[in-house]
Amino acid sequence: MRSTFDELEKEMSELRALVASIAPVNSALAGHQDSLVRQYVMIRRRFDYAAFAVAIYASFEKFIENLVAAFARLEARRVQYAALPPKLVKKHLSRTAEILARGRLGEGRYTGLRDLDVVKNLFECLNGVTPYTLNEAAVVAHDLNLRPGEIDTLFAAVGIEQVCDRVRRADALLDWYCAVKELDARPQDGVPAAIVEERLKDIVERRNQVAHRGGNPVDLLGADEMGEAVGFLEAFSKSVFSLAVARYLQDHHAATDIQLQQREGDGPYKSGTVVVVEKSAHRLFVGQPVFVIVDSTGTRWGRIQSIKVDDADVQAVEAGAPAANGIGIALDFKCPKGATLVALAADDDVVWSPWRPTAVAESAA
Fold it and tell me: Of 69, 67, 74, which Cα lies nearest the Cα of 8?
């Protein structure tokens, strides 16, 4: 799943570069000696906007579809086909039938798919074969553009409900909203639902307007407004990703990995990034992947940045090692007071990027 968000961030970074280039490039062209080049400035502005409107929605739609597909694949590895969410089983069956009936396999978004493979996958799913392969084109199928209702429907099919409501209280979207509105404190009720709905609707409708009007769109966005659109979509997508990660961690790790209870009445410190836990029945080490489930925001995850035992920095704490004053653990995210921290015995690259020991030094520099 991590790779889906990594790809989105790369594409959002490229869109930011496009937006940043508009003013200096236009300025350079406007002063050109050739009148034909100067005339090109206004034409370029329209087509820059058109390219932006199409690209930002395409990146977003691809991210949502890829995230839903990746989550469904992980669920298919974890449980038998009959144990998948009923909505997913029903959608997989009906949409597979539709794809076959349309007779367009091998074309457009179905490039690379063959009738035989699609039928074989469905047959094995319905007959309890293990392992089985879902037809991902059926899992991510949708008939409408990705406004809130359609996003909710896509994720509900794989067992993640009310995404567009829950995302309003996620860290990334709240941070974006506070920055845009210049708020000192996060609103307790989260980002207003109307803000989320209108922002998504605007991105969809601008894309559709370009698709219908071609190179002559109306109500063009300026560079600053384009930057705001990228900021919102990146924050929204990161928040959606956090909800999907939370569900994955709950299903795959929360009940089976290392449970670390915070020492009562002791911390967290340094704005919530340092917690004190009792001695552990399992080995803990610097760089170890950890997470905490936060009901209102999804999840926060990262790695242990440093460990302190009896005022001494250590690289690891062995299972059952005495710690009179508890074990101090520095994190790269904020942990709520009293929340249970969960540590993994080994890496899980579904969520975590590879550990780089120099990251601590770099962040402190």
Answer: 67
